[in-house]
Amino acid sequence: MKPIDASLKSQFVTKSKAAVIFLDKCESRSKRENLIQDLQRNLAKYNLDVDIFGPCGLKQCKRKTMNPCFWRLRKNYYFYLAFEDSLAYDYITDIVLYAYNNNAVPIVYGGARYDSYLPPGSYINALNTSAKALAASMHDIIENKEKYYDFFRWKNYYIISKSPILNACALCETLNSPARLVQNVVISKFRTWWNNIVFVL
């Protein structure tokens, strides 16, 4: 894979903080709050921290929209903690897009097969590692800028696009229409059709 260009590298020069999470639900089914606490303890050994914005932390955006938070993420933070509320199989929400849309590396924690949804080499999966190992890895990546840049090589090959919002009325109409239920639809290039929803080559 080819390296990222100088203009993209220049967007990282203001980053000085390890990680951030925007959190409005302080207790979760996934127990992500415990992982955040463990990660904070282990990052402290490297003089690094996790900033928590919202009702569950000490920092606020002080505006009615998320734009000030996104601006801070883009400018200041190396990583965004995309920790899901649930570890259900293949459950993934759009919080991972906070990182992708704001030039941060997502650290994911959830039940999804992330390699089926996200560009390869673009994220860190926290599910099968310890907080101690994760903190050490984050410190190493922050100290070695080339390793950090590698997480953005996907931008040479992919774009992220949000899938269309499900139209519940159209779905209900289809399910209640006998003529539509007997229609046969064949997708001849299924992989192209499916991948076009998540990321485009």
At a glance:
By secondary structure, the protein is of the alpha/beta class. The chain has nine helices and seven strands, in the order H-E-H-E-H-E-H-E-E-H-H-E-H-H-H-E. Helix 2 crosses helix 5.
Average of per-residue pLDDT values: 88
Q: In angstroms, what separates the terminal alpha carbons?
A: 14 Å
Low-confidence stretches: none
Q: Give the C-level CATH assignment of the largest domain.
A: Alpha Beta
Q: Which strands sit side by side, in order, in the main sheet?
A: 2-1-3-4-5
Key words describing this protein structure:
two-stranded antiparallel sheet; five-stranded parallel β-sheet; Rossmann fold; 201 residues
Commentary on this structure:
There is one protein chain. The protein has helices at residues 6-9, 32-43, 67-76, 96-100, 131-143, 145-150, 168-175, 178-181, 190-198; strands at 17-22, 50-53, 77-83, 105-109, 124-125, 159-160, 199-200. With 201 residues, it is of the alpha/beta class. It folds into two domains: 6-157, Glycosyl transferase family 10, C-terminal domain (Rossmann fold), CATH 3.40.50.11660; 160-200, no CATH class. The protein has a five-stranded parallel β-sheet, with helices on both faces. Helix 4 links the parallel strand 3 (77-83) and strand 4. The relative contact order is 0.15.
Any chance you could write out the topology, listing elements then pairs?
Layout: H1 6-9, E1 17-22, H2 32-43, E2 50-53, H3 67-76, E3 77-83, H4 96-100, E4 105-109, E5 124-125, H5 131-143, H6 145-150, E6 159-160, H7 168-175, H8 178-181, H9 190-198, E7 199-200
Parallel strand pairs: 1-2, 1-3, 3-4, 4-5
Antiparallel strand pairs: 6-7
Helix pairs in contact: 2-5
